[in-house]
Amino acid sequence: MALSKDKKHEVVREVAEALASSKITVVARYQGTTVKALQQLRRDARAGGTKLRVVKNRLVVKALSEVDALKGVDASALNGQLLYAFNSEDEVAPAQALNTFAKLNPSIEFVGGITAQGTFISAEEVKALAVLPSKEQLIAEVVATLLSPVHDVTNGLSGNLHALLDGIEAKAS
């Protein structure tokens, strides 16, 4: 069923808002994916704060032209049946959600991504983002790295203290 002109304007406005607020928008082909699988993908992605949308490409191109920061985006790769993954909180979550799903459903194929700065990145760059650890994991690794010298000193001192106590005990016996 064709959309009315008013409905198309509403879709363009919604997509423009999603593009403007998203830290990255990941674009993927979904041809050959079942409706049931797409519904599961939407549920899984929503758990990570990512919203998925299937929109006609020319409406997305029109929405891109309505967002000042994204007016210069190269939209030549936007053809075929595409889904768009938006996330306003995390830069890697959309790529990770689609990558995780694509492992079980090879019909999902990255096309690229649109950054908040207005750059279209390639499918290879999106795949590289998808394998990055999450923001929380990176913070935990940095904290662990910063704390390792403190732990080393503590362990060294406690080892010397144990040796001292063992020596005193041996002398007292």
Which residues form runs of ≥5 with pLDDT under 50?
Answer: none
Number of strands: 5
Counted by DSSP, the helix tally is: 6
The main sheet orders its strands as: 2-3-1-4-5
Looking at the overall shape, the CATH architecture of the largest domain is 2-Layer Sandwich
Helix content: 55-70%
Distance between the terminal alpha carbons, to the nearest Å?
93 Å
Averaged pLDDT: 85
Tell me the structural class: alpha+beta
Morphology call? elongated
Q: What letter string, H or E per element, gives the SSE order?
A: HEHEHEHEEHH
How much strand? 15-25%
The Cα radius of gyration reads 25 Å
CATH superfamily of the largest domain: Ribosomal protein L10, N-terminal RNA-binding domain
Q: What is the domain total for the residues? A: 2
The major pleated sheet works out as: 5 strands, antiparallel
The CATH first-level class of the largest domain comes to: Alpha Beta
Kindly identify the CATH topology of the largest domain: Alpha-Beta Plaits
